[in-house]
Amino acid sequence: MAFSPCSSVPAVAAITCLIAVVVGCYWPVEARIPTTLDGPFQPLTVPFDPSLRGNAVDLPDDDHRVRRRVKGFEPEQISVSLSADYDSVWISWITGEYQIGDNIMPLDPKSVQSVVQYGKLGYPPTNEASGYSLVYNQLYPFEGLQNYTSGIIHHVRLTGLKPNTVYFYQCGDPSIPAMSEIHHFRTMPVTGPRSYPERIAVVGDLGLTYNTTATISHLTSNNPDLVLLIGDVTYANLYLTNGTGSDCYSCSFPNSPIHETYQPRWDYWGRYMQSLVSKVPIMVVEGNHEIEEQAENKTFEAYSSRFAFPSEESGSSSTFYYSFNAGGIHFIMIGAYTDFSKSGKQYKWLEQDLANVDRSITPWLVATWHPPWYSTYEAHYREAECMRMEMEELLYSYGVDIVFSGHVHAYERSNRVYDYNLDPCGPVYLTVGDGGNREKMAVHHADEPGHCPEPLTTPDEHLGAGAFCAMNFTSGPAAGKFCWDRQPDYSAFRESSFGHGILEVKNETWALWTWYRNQDSDDKIGDQIYIVRQPDKCRSRYMLTSWIAEL
Questions:
Q1: How far apart are CA 485 and CA 297, in angstroms?
Q2: Using CA atoms, how far apart are residues 12 and 18, in angstroms rounded to an integer?
Q3: Which residues form the Purple acid phosphatase C-terminal domain (predicted)?
Q4: β-pairing, 428-432 with 402-405?
Q5: In a designed cystine with 510, which of 57, 153, 493, 506 is the match (CB 3.0 to 4.6 A)?
Q6: How does DSSP assign 40-90, residue by residue?
């Protein structure tokens, strides 16, 4: 059946849609893809295939893809990340070797320059920028545990860039000389309602297993312009400091005096990912596996040190939350493992950031954080309820369109929902914690007999200081219960498989979401839907303010 996106929309939206077709926007004409306008959908669960579970085995230390292949202070683990807008990016890399053991001596960050030479031509470069460098330590004040100090981490911000333009670059220290090979990246399209990245890859809970390599290979074949990593990066905290690992840390190492990590796994991950993220920008938000507690109660040292974040550019004072534009999309990265209360700094920043969004320039508003609010799996069920209760109303009032989360190692797509009720103006929640990590897949649902968690077991000590907020439902089919006895109405589709997603925003109101499973061929689709905004029907706080001002 041929499909026109204008065939099933309200009259006002149909006019907009027809205009978009006339001016040359791409629209599929093959088999009809469902849209959120067809919803809410009847809940669907794809039965779990036990043959897919297998063993989630980490890449070993001697795998050639994770070994150090540079000499001296030559750059490695090179990556690109975005600044707040199209005209600026960050280039990051590491020089020098990490140390791990009892007697470590941190490198001097000032001993090597942080320089990027770049331009629109492959050679010679026409511009040069300098940045800053640092090292971080992971220290354990317990006998027998090994300490770690990183190589020198460099971050350089390039500014004054043109939109949708390929730039070539080398990074390193030209005075040694120790410069990288020539790499390239493409800037984001100009910020505006008619320009969007073609494909945005979304993935969570990656780790560094053979499943991970399948995910990244599949993702790379889709030629993304941007990668969103929704927390839980390396799973270095599934290891002791001597390199002994386990699928379940607490099960295997119950007597550890502190939750240890094996920090070289971060270096392995950076080396493996370089071929992708040295040319495709990656934007990361923290997950629980990045906490990595150490001496003096320090946490998140690796996460906050290794990645560059547009925090300052977006008015944030933290690496845990920030925002950026990618064409006509405004992304908000929200921290679940820092204070999210209404009286906290993050909430006040979020209020200001949302108030500053001009939906006539960036029509799409997308939020991400690690633990999902609307997951129906037994694992982590309603774990982030305190966060939801603090922030959901604010995000809803500003008309957030899509929310991406991870944490649960499976895939799930919601119907449009607000406060557990079907709502045509609520966001679509997408859980993509199925990147392939060592902890394996989530396969049981809270609505299955015997799998509804005891309420007091659901709080996470790192989320809202472990406060208990998830009470029994007070209305609807699950009134008086902690779990539904069937797949909840707000859950549209769920499946336990490893994979990744691709978001393709077509214009101001239509976006195509596609989820791919690792076990399928590159062109086979696991789940697909058009997410359609209805600004004429769902007036956000911003739109109402603008409308009143016009009157």
A1: 42
A2: 10
A3: 481-528
A4: parallel
A5: 506
A6: SPPPEEPPP-GGGT---PBPPTT-TTTS----TT--EEEEEEE-SSTT-EE
User: How far is Cα 411 from Cα 499, in angstroms, rounded to an integer?
Assistant: 8
Beta carbons within 10 angstroms of residue 434's beta carbon: 31
Where residue 204 sits, what CATH number does that domain have? 3.60.21.10
Strand stretches in 237-380, DSSP E: 282-284, 322-326, 329-333, 364-368
Task: Look up residue 467 and give its two tokens.
Answer: 């406060």
Query: With 70 as the cut, is the pLDDT of residue 16 above it?
Result: no
Please report whether residue 334 resides in a domain.
Answer: yes
**DSSP conformation class of 191:** S
Token couple for 216: 């990244």
Q: What is the pLDDT of residues 409-438, one digit of tens each?
A: 999 999 999 999 999 999 999 999 999 999
- Residue 296 confidence (pLDDT): 95
* Overall number of domains in the chain: 1
HSE-CB at 202 with a 13 A cutoff on CA atoms is 27
C-alpha distance from residue 536 to each of 16, 19, 83, 228, 397 (Å): 11, 16, 31, 29, 15
* Tokens 């993702």, located at residue: 219
Residues catalogued as catalytic? 380
Does 239 map to a domain? yes
Q: What local confidence, expressed as pLDDT, does residue 465 receive?
A: 87
Q: Which residues of 359-372 are buried (b: 16+ CB within 10 A; e: fewer)?
A: beebbbbbbbbbbb
Residue identified by tokens 């669960």 is 45
Q: Each residue of 168-213: pLDDT tens digit?
A: 999 999 999 999 999 999 999 999 999 999 999 999 999 999 999 9
> What one-character-per-residue DSSP string does 147-164 give?
EEE--EEEEEEE-SPPTT
d(CA 397, CA 385): 18
What token pair was written down for 409? 């190692």
- Which of the given ranges, 277-286, 455-464, 540-549, has the highest pLDDT on average? 277-286
Q: Given phi > 0 = left and psi -120 to 50 = alpha, else beta, which region is 232? A: left
d(CA 342, CA 391): 8
**250 φ, ψ to 5°?**
-65, -30
- Measured between alpha carbons, how far is 323 from 310 in angstroms, rounded to an integer? 7
Phi, psi at 130, each rounded to 5°: -115, 155
The pLDDT mean for the chain works out to 92
Place of tokens 């070993």: 60
Boundaries of domain holding 352 = 44-137+159-532
Task: List the one residue out of 545, 410, 546 whose CA is nearest residue 47.
Answer: 410
For residue 287, being part of any structural domain is answered with yes
In a domain, 204, yes or no: yes
CB contact burial 191-206 (16+ within 10 A = b; e otherwise): bbbebbbbbbbbbbbb
